[in-house]
Amino acid sequence: MDISDIATEEFIEVDVKTRLGKVRSLFERENPKGIIVTRDGEYDAVLTEREIIQSHVEDDAKVAALVKPSRNAPAPKVERYEDIRETARVLVEGGVKVAPVFEGDNLWGIVTADAILEAVIENLDALDVGQIYSDDPVTVNDSDGLGTVVNLLREHGISRLPVLDDSGGLTGVVTTHDVADVVIRGMTKSTRGERAGDTDRMLDIPVYDIMTSPVQTTTLGESVEEAVSRMLEDDLGGLVVVDPEDDDRVVGVVTKTDVLRALTFTEEEHMDVQITNISLLDTLSRETIRDSLTDVLDKYQKMQVMHVHVRFQQHKEKLRGTPLIYSQIRVRTTDGQVAGSGEGYGAESAFRVALDKLERNVLEMKSYRSDEEYRGQLARKLNEL
């Protein structure tokens, strides 16, 4: 299946010289999945609400201050007749929910994550939430301040945090959209003089005052088709995964991005590896990462690897000009998930630390299960796209 029938010519476009204040108003008023940015009439980048929230750039600054695609990670784009699974990969690796669609050299329209999910939803009955969700979720306490939320969203590159009460039970969820009004209209405007004090007070606002409650939840056994149907119906970016025997105990999160990532699973001979924030790679290449992972995971023949996700995150700290990088490797197998993470100066150093931790964690897994029947069922479903 290609995207020609699900792409649309209707989209919001702004020039790089547009004031950020105007763009923030567009996000508040129109609630788009993303905004297409142009430079001298030519496509330049996609701007998301998350980038707006994570930035401290003032309203008077121009959009150009936030959109600086590198040569290693150019602005995401797809052709009008691109394969739907390759399009899903572009969205996931670009960290966006919308990508520009080109017809030849001309910007034709956009394709959204929601449009893709609506098109493939009937094929998702081969999956259950437990096969694609993210375990070990990052959480926040309902008494923590807004500043803690913003820092966690930025540090982990995520869009939602389950909120726990003092007893550790699920009481709400806070997302980038929930904090957008506070951050966009307050934090980025209060930067000078007496307003700086206003910023501090705003960052102390307790999560309880801005979170969404009650929480939309799911369980590991629910089909992805059913979970996605609820996300689309209620315009949710994801669901909190809870223990079926204790709906107050959080075990993970499943998002639209997790579903898009599942669409990229293949039966190719080489390992299916996806990289987030690929622009941070320095001396590493995609091939080097894949080969290194293959060398490690091929030692465990009984573990059937479905997919590997490698994420890099840059910190402000530097050593002789080289930034401190956080790397996380998450491997999805037919027997569950296993991960490894680590930090180092430069992407290669961080990746090696994470890879070493991954192998140690694999060794600690008690058992592996070969499930060729499931793998074949999933492949058949996805190959129908």
From TrEMBL:
Please name the InterPro entries in this protein's record. CBS_dom, CBS_dom_sf, Diverse_CBS-Domain, UCP036983_2CBS_MJ1404
Give the Pfam families listed for this entry: CBS
List residues of the CBS domain.
133-190, 211-273
Keyword rRNA-binding assigned: no
For this UniProt record, the keywords arranged alphabetically read as follows:
CBS domain
TM annotation in the entry: none
Q: Where is the signal peptide?
A: none
Protein name as annotated? CBS domain-containing protein
